[in-house]
Task: inverse folding
């Protein structure tokens, strides 16, 4: 009994999920139905994720931002993950991935799904390796883990099915080799055993379980470049070609699929990368990690990646995986989640405005109107982060020599005599 | 007795300043001489700024970042400005502008010039208005203030000479009118008195004093848009046409000139804006403020502006004026200066790498090499902000269940079993 948004859309149905997404995106429901039918937009919505608020991902839709959370073997308190989820949702994550590799993975995941109205994604190989070690990878374990996660309600799963045995030597020529965790684990296992990647070899069985629960596949980029020097190399594009083949197999089966992308990419190669994915993967939604545009700013990789992400979205990516300030240094804490999301929500919004998506600039125009008439309260309400805007103005007024002048028609940057907005308002009145 | 870098370059001289800049930029000194002669690169270097380390600005050179500091009437402690200058230099400001409008302006400026090896810029109308009020603008005061500042050693001055009386009604049609302080003050004065802009009317006299001290003119954009809705409008481009005319007059006289640009610009209009300036102003170095690419993130405008700035530089701007987190809210403090600069240094570096400027990626490649072999100390040394990278790793290790494992070959993000870099290194060795 197969049901997926894609199969329903193909049969002409406008599902409740399609209707909800179309309304949120201010686009025509039947146009969205067609995109879902064609695989050019996905709505990750596991039939067992009861409290889901559906979210659409595709180039015709608003740019989405994913937040990765999850434990590691060195830090695995379930309550920490709840806190990170709440922060992620508060700061606007459109989807959330549980990348836990330590602690009671089932317990953590079950609780996150129950708590999250946003689609939840996982990387099943993490549970496989956590349970059986790096050499315990097998077809049976893979299907067991994916089945149990699908039954729990996981909306999308990243599988590195495009990384083939023959690609590994290409990747080892690089400065940084393989930097995807799943990719490196698979490469090590394939090298050790001489077997082909089971996610590729048994892909048809994976498609069957996806059809049962409507799990969206996120075709992972196990060979994404880990530094600027490794970007756009033969390893990366060989895997991309395989991902294009897998997209077609997903579509033939009626399984929703998106494609994951780099990673670390110099600014002048981002547009080419976005166009190449569209061509090779026939416009399957592209879900990119950053990309980071400079390598020398550890501690600020939420910014280096948001900057690349903005241009990735502008040139065609559908979803951005956030990066936190701790990237390359350690596991993010709750505050890092907030910092990462803020940078990426800005990037996504900038791209949406640049692409003239329906209603994208409304909030910006409203805040500009409020600025013109010194309506500070309205500016704060419309701000991406009202608390911070409010606190900064308060701070600035406190540092000023006239701290009590709160309601006044200027800010401390220029003071009243040099306030251009005040002068402009006066000139407009005199017209 | 006129001496300017431009006149010297035209006579075939490779001045010590040209030689120093060419060495720093890793380009040929005679090629740079030609760019300076043609006005396509400037080296702001007032003959009275004794301790200056020369800095070149132009599309063929590394992207520069300017930091604005300065007092306002509400906050005017000279020591605060020293502190901001030191922070600006520490965080990599290539030039610094003293935008003080409150306190003893001469005292503040003299001290900043003496303390700053970076070129220092000012906006003379601020001193004029601080001394004589908004209605006290006059030819005499203008020349007196500009002369005294030039004699003090100011390397470049922003004058809003392109904002003509006839442009004002165009600008008042906008959502936010005129948001440049200098522009708004001049518009108010022209409207009140009916006179033409003295910076335009007496431009030849200004050129004479620039020739005497080699002051570089930064032709200000008094009509830059103050919100996305106002971008690329007739007011902005009418002023740009006048700036193009003034660039030609500067070049004819042998005075170095750059052109200031917007402001608030949606992502899809940035490239067009950069190309238009190049065409209208014959490739005079473009010095842009941001641009901010979304209006609804007060408190984060260092990011919204750095993102726009990155693309501005990539598409042709030569210098980015930083924006701090306090923009639109209040006068920045020392920490805001640091936050603004960091975001903009990242943006400038990303553009330089994207444009393949000589040696731009060396530091990134070196840090990637260090990453591949887990040389944490080298990674910290090569980081844009070593203190922060070091602190984040320390924090992450402290939060881990194995806090004493400092020298180890993994980070707490993945832990040892899931560390892709560790796995890759092992695979490479096995090859």
Result:
């Amino acid at each position: 009994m197969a049901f997926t948004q894609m199969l329903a859309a193909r049969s002409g149905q406008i599902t409740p999920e399609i209707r909800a997404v179309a309304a949120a995106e201010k686009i025509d429901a039947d146009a969205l139905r067609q995109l879902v039918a064609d695989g050019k937009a996905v709505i990750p919505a596991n039939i067992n994720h009861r409290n889901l608020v559906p979210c659409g991902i595709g180039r015709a839709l608003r740019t989405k931002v994913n937040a990765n959370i999850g434990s590691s073997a060195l830090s695995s308190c379930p309550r920490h993950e709840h806190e990170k989820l709440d922060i992620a949702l508060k700061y606007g994550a459109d989807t959330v991935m549980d990348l836990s590799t330590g602690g009671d993975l089932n317990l953590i995941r079950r609780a996150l799904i129950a708590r999250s109205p946003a689609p939840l994604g996982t990387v099943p190989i993490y549970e496989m390796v956590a349970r059986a070690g790096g050499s315990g990878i097998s077809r049976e374990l893979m299907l067991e883990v994916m089945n149990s996660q699908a039954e729990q309600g996981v909306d999308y799963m990243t599988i590195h099915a495009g990384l083939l045995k023959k690609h590994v030597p290409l990747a080892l020529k690089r400065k940084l080799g393989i930097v995807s965790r799943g990719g490196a684990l698979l490469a090590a296992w394939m090298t050790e055993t001489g077997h082909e990647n089971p996610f590729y070899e048994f892909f048809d069985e994976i498609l069957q379980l996806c059809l049962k629960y409507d799990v969206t596949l996120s075709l992972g980029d196990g060979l994404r470049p880990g530094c600027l020097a490794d970007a756009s190399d033969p390893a990366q594009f060989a895997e991309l070609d395989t991902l294009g083949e897998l997209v077609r197999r997903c579509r033939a089966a009626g399984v929703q699929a998106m494609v994951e992308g780099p990673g670390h990419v110099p600014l002048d190669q981002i547009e080419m990368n976005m166009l190449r994915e569209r061509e090779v993967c026939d416009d399957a939604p592209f879900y990119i990690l950053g990309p980071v545009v400079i390598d020398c700013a550890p501690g600020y990789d939420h910014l280096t990646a948001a900057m690349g992400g903005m241009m990735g979205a502008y040139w065609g990516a559908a979803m951005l995986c956030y990066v936190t300030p701790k990237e390359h240094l350690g596991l993010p804490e709750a505050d890092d989640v907030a910092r990462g999301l803020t940078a990426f929500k800005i990037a996504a919004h900038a791209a949406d405005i640049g692409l003239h998506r329906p209603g994208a600039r409304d909030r910006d125009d409203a805040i500009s109107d409020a600025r013109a008439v010194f309506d500070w309260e309205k500016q704060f309400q419309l701000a991406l982060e009202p608390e911070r805007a409010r606190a900064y103005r308060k701070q600035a007024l406190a540092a000023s020599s006239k701290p009590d002048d709160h309601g006044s028609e200027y800010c401390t940057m220029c003071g009243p005599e040099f306030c251009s907005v005040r002068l402009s308002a006066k000139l407009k009145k005199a017209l």
